[in-house]
Amino acid sequence: MGRIKETAAVYETRPLPEGKITFEEFLAWCDEDTWAEWVDGEVVILTPAARKHQKITALLSTLLREFVLKQSLGDVLTAPFLVRLPESLRRGREPDIFYVSNEKLPLLKETYMDGPPDLIVEITSPESLARDRGEKYVEYEAAGVKEYWLIDPDRRQAEFYRLAEEGRYRTVHPNEEGIYRSEVIPGFWLQVSWLWQDPLPSAIDCLKELGLI
């Protein structure tokens, strides 16, 4: 409850828009520090992430970004940065992490991505779990996001979904060694147990395992 009050306090000097607004009006209202999403014309404020959530986000985004940049595969971005899903969905989401292939780089605008990225990673919190596993799962599938990773730090559970030919997500499990290999980022793999270590391993040690340094 404290974090929700803290979030609300941020917007006391910048009131939330009344009624439904267009995506363009939403962009004009928010700024680069705004943690909010646009859902069917309404503004949905996101609560601040917990420390554990932030640490996992930092580790994963570093590994993905370093790999993608070294291989010249595209770009990796983190929240707050909006992803505008196809018009029919009327959604502007803020994924925790997302990967954009070279082919889709033209979709990146100054303050948002105008279309679905190739990979989205959501690190859940108790507040976001139902939304990430329910609403966003359906939306990302319908939008054609090729891979969706759902990381749950509290349950120490990682779910990996891949878009099949029929346009539906299929669960892909790590191998017997607990390693997940991405399809949309060729050559990238993740030792899932890294995410549950306390403290988390250093990004440098993980990058060494990946053969990047």
From TrEMBL:
<dbReference type="InterPro" id="IPR008538">
    <property type="entry name" value="Uma2"/>
</dbReference>
<keyword id="KW-0255">Endonuclease</keyword>
<dbReference type="InterPro" id="IPR012296">
    <property type="entry name" value="Nuclease_put_TT1808"/>
</dbReference>
<feature type="domain" description="Putative restriction endonuclease">
    <location>
        <begin position="23"/>
        <end position="192"/>
    </location>
</feature>
<dbReference type="Pfam" id="PF05685">
    <property type="entry name" value="Uma2"/>
</dbReference>
<dbReference type="InterPro" id="IPR011335">
    <property type="entry name" value="Restrct_endonuc-II-like"/>
</dbReference>
<protein>
    <submittedName>
        <fullName>Endonuclease, Uma2 family (Restriction endonuclease fold)</fullName>
    </submittedName>
</protein>
<dbReference type="GO" id="GO:0004519">
    <property type="term" value="F:endonuclease activity"/>
</dbReference>
<keyword id="KW-0378">Hydrolase</keyword>
<keyword id="KW-0540">Nuclease</keyword>
